[in-house]
């Protein structure tokens, strides 16, 4: 059985957030030019991490919640300039205090299709 990435990822982060008593809120994607100048690929998802459960309704942070940092979630494989994988193994990396990069190294979906996670990929994302 496969899980569509669009609805699955927020639910998965909600489960992880409840386990660690944090709230993940996706930062809106900036326009293409600022994204290119910052160095992040357009498919990298950026989440703000806040302390505690979300506000009632789950739409945003609770009043008085403290910002803990950011998670940069890179789901797909990247190639270096030489055609080799840019990241050897999937995993998390602390960029600096409050900023974590999570590379999952998953295969990209075919052109014109949405990404479907298999159960092992969902477990791997939750584990990391």
What portion of the residues fall into strands of 2 or more residues?
25-35%
The first-to-last residue Cα distance is 22 Å
Overall number of strands? 7
- Fraction of residues in helices? 25-40%
How many individual helices?
3
Topology at a glance:
Elements: E1 3-4, H1 5-20, E2 22-26, H2 32-38, E3 45-51, E4 67-76, E5 91-96, E6 99-106, E7 116-117, H3 119-127
Parallel strand pairs: 4-6
Antiparallel strand pairs: 1-7, 2-3, 3-4, 5-6
Tell me what the structure shows:
The structure is a single chain. Helix content is 25%, strand content 31%. With 128 residues, it is α+β, with helices and mostly antiparallel strands. The strands form 2 sheets. The chain has a 5-stranded mixed sheet with strand order 2-3-4-6-5, covered by helices on one side. A hairpin with a 2-residue loop joins strand 5 and strand 6 (99-106). The protein is globular and about 45 Å long. The two termini are 22 Å apart.
């Amino acid at each position: 059985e496969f899980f569509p990435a669009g609805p699955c990822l927020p639910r998965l982060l909600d489960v992880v957030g409840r386990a660690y008593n944090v709230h993940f809120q996706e930062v809106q994607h900036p326009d293409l030019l600022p994204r290119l100048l910052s160095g992040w690929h357009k498919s990298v998802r950026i989440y703000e991490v806040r302390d505690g459960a979300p506000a009632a309704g789950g739409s945003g942070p609770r009043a008085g919640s403290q910002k803990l940092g950011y998670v940069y979630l890179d789901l797909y494989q990247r190639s270096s300039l030489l055609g080799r994988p840019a990241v050897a193994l999937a995993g998390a990396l602390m960029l600096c205090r409050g900023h974590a990069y999570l590379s999952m190294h998953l295969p990209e979906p075919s052109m014109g299709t949405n990404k479907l996670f298999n159960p092992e990929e969902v477990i791997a994302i939750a584990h990391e």
